[in-house]
Design a protein that fits this description.
The chain is built from 4 helices and 2 strands. It is mainly alpha-helical.
Length: about 130
């Protein structure tokens, strides 16, 4: 691996633990183009599929929490309508709605790259079909 990295123009940072076989850190100048270790199509498809799955799972989980916080906030407001003397319920509802907004934004940000990954997977699969 270290030979491949140096042949591709990367410089291995000497402070890494190469002999133990743990992690190797390498740097390469940006003007040399994209630096991809996975060069065969199947490895790239696997990498992008894993990235897409990660974003889908965690983005969907955050959207589930968004719905949960909306539900909790609305139940607190409903409870306040039944017992208007307890004013602190509205502050709890505001906190729940603020948490819901944060969850929504984080979930949407996590879901943003999913179409890009799907497009890249389709391109790689079509390229693999052409090469076969």
């Amino acid at each position: 691996l270290t030979e491949y990295l140096t042949e591709s123009g990367a410089e291995i940072i000497p402070e890494t633990n190469i002999d133990a076989g743990t992690r190797i850190y390498a740097v390469r100048r940006a003007d040399m183009g994209d630096f991809e270790i996975n060069t065969d199509i199947d490895s790239q498809i696997s990498e992008y599929t894993g990235r897409r799955r990660y974003h889908l799972v965690f983005g969907a989980a955050l959207l589930v929490f968004f719905v949960l916080f909306l539900f909790l906030g609305s139940t607190i407001v409903y409870d306040y309508m039944l017992n208007p003397d307890e004013r602190f319920h509205l502050s709890y509802a505001c906190i729940e709605y603020a948490c819901a907004a944060v969850e929504l934004v984080c979930g949407l940000v996590l879901l943003l790259p999913v179409p890009k990954y799907s497009k890249k997977i389709r391109e790689l699969k079509s390229r693999r079909t052409i090469e076969e």
